[in-house]
Fold these 2 entries.
Entry 1:
Amino acid sequence: MNEHESIRELLALAVAGALDEGEQRMLDKHLASCAACSAELDGWRGLAVSLKRLPTPQAPPMLVERTRSRVAFEMAAVAERRKSQWVMAFLVLFSWTVTLVTWPIVRLLSGGLLS
Ligand SMILES: [Zn+2]
C-alpha cells in the first residue's frame, strides 16, 4: 500500500474527527503536498455536510409503541424469572433446613421403635 492509499483510508475518519494526534499530523503533512488527496478530503467533507442536512429518520409511532411494549414485557419476564429463582432457592434452603432439623427427631423415634 503506497502513501496515498494509506492516507485515503484516513480521510473519512478525519472528517468524522476520529483520528488520533499522530494520524492527524501525518495526514496534515501529506495534504500540504498532495492535491489529489486534498481534493478527496474535500469530497468527504461535502458528503459529511450533506449527511448532516438530511432529516433524522423517525420511526413510525406504531413501531415505537410496539417496541416499547415488547421491552416492558421482556423486563417483566426477567423480573419474574429472577423472583422465581429466589423462591426456588428459598424452597431448597427451607427443605434442607426442615430435613436437618427433623432428622434427629425421626432418628430418635425410629431408634426408639426399633430398640
Ligand atoms: Zn496523496
Entry 2:
Amino acid sequence: MRASVLTATRTIEIEERPEPEPRPGEVVVRVSSVGVCGSDIHYYRDGRIGPFVVDAPLVLGHEAAGEVVAFGDGVDRHAVGDRVSLEPGVPDFTCRLCLEGKYNLCPNMRFFATPPIDGAFSEYVAIHQAFAHPVPDAVSDDAAALLEPLSVGLWACRKGAAGPGSRVLINGAGPIGLVSLQAALAFGATEVVVADVNKQRLDVAAASGATGTLNVGDTPLEDAGIDADVVLECSGVPEATTAALYALRPGGRAVLVGSGSHDVALPLMRLQVHELQVSGLFRYANTWPMAIELVASGRIDLDRLVTGHYGLEQTEEALTVGMRDPASIKPIVSPQT
Ligand SMILES: NC(=O)c1ccc[n+]([C@@H]2O[C@H](COP(=O)([O-])OP(=O)(O)OC[C@H]3O[C@@H](n4cnc5c(N)ncnc54)[C@H](O)[C@@H]3O)[C@@H](O)[C@H]2O)c1
Ligand SMILES: [Zn+2]
C-alpha cells in the first residue's frame, strides 16, 4: 500500500509499505477520508509538539474514516464492508483511569500520528474493533472522519456543562471552535457568540448558527460586554485565554481547549471573587455514539467545514494550504486517490 510519510521536518514522501495485518480484536480499514488537524501541521513544520518529538519517519493524520476490509481473531462486531469512523486513540483498557471511564487520560494511550504511532495518511490502517465505530449512510465519509474534532467540541460542552438556555462564548473559530459552536447549539445553548480575528472564519460561524460574532481585532473581548455562563477557549492564544475569563458571569465555567503555550496568566482575584471554574480538557471519551447520532440526524453539519480535497500524493499541499489561504478550514486527504 501507499503511505504518505513525514521523513524529516517539512518533508513528506510517498512510500510503499506492507498492508497492515490485523492482530486479534483488530479490524483493517481501507481509509477513505482523513482530516488535516493543526497537530499534523505542527509535526510537519516543527517536527515536535512539546515533549512529543518525531525522531523516526511518521505517518500523520488521525481524523479518519473508511471501510472494514478484514478482521483478526475474536472480532465479533464488524463485517467486511462496514463503513466506520475511527476513534484514533486506543488505551490499555486495564489501568485505573481506563477502569474509571477516563480512558482519554490513560498513560498507555496509543494515539494515531503521535510519535511513535503511525497515523492514517495511508491506504489501510489497523485498529481495535471497539474504536472503529460503524456509521450510517447519512454520514458522509468526510463527516465520519470529522467526528474526531467534533468529539473535542462535544467533550468541551460536557466539561463546561453547556445545556438548555446556556449562554456560551466560543473563543477562536478554527475547526475546533466551529465544531464546539455546533455542539453547544445541539446541547441547547440559546446564545452562542464566537470570537476570532479571522473574518472568513467568523462568517462561517455566523452561517453555522452563531447568535453573534465578535472580531476581537476591532473590539477587544473585554469591551464587548459579554456575560457568558460558559466559555470554551479554542484559540490557544495565551492573552486571549486570559481575556476570555473576563467574559464569564459570576459562577461561570471556562473550559481551556486551546493549547500550545506552557503557561497562561490567570486573574486570580476574579476567579476567587466570582467563583469561576476553570477546567482543562484532553481530547474526549465516550463521544462517538453521540457524535454519530447528531450528525446522522442532521443536527450537526460537518461537511460544511470541508474546504478542499487532496489525494495522497498531495498530502503536503493539504498540510500547507492553511498557511497560504485564510479561508481554509478543513482540508481532507483521500488516500485512495
Ligand atoms: N485539548 C485538546 O485535547 C485539544 C484537542 C484538539 C485541539 N486542541 C487545540 O485547540 C485549539 C484550536 O484548534 P484549531 O484546530 O481550531 O486551531 P486553529 O489554529 O485553526 O484555530 C485557532 C483560532 O483562534 C483564532 N485566534 C487567534 N487569535 C485570537 C484571539 N486573540 N482571540 C480569539 N481567537 C483568536 C485564530 O484566528 C484561529 O481561527 C488549538 O490550540 C489546538 O491545539 C486541543
Ligand atoms: Zn488505561
